[in-house]
Amino acid sequence: MFTHVRALMAAVGAGTDDILKMTFHLADPRDREALNREWLAMFPDPACRPARQAVAARLDGAARIHCDLLAVLPGAATSYPPSDPAA
Fold it and tell me: How far apart are CA 84 and CA 28, in angstroms?
C-alpha cells in the first residue's frame, strides 16, 4: 500500500513530504505492527511525520487495509480571497 501512496503522490507532482494526514482502515487490528514498520520506513523523522489515524474496519472482499490521505499539492493556492462580511 505504501508503494501505491508513493506512486500516487508522484503522479500528481508531489511527494510524501506533502502529506498532512493519513487514515488507515484495518480489517485486522493485529496488522498494526506491520503498518507501523512501513510507516517508520516512509516517515523516519518523527518531526516530519503527518498526522495518522488507524481504525478497525469491516472491508469489502479480501481487502486487509484501506487508506485515505490529505495532502497539499505543490503549486496549490495557499491564499484565499478575503471573506465578505456581508455574506
Answer: 48
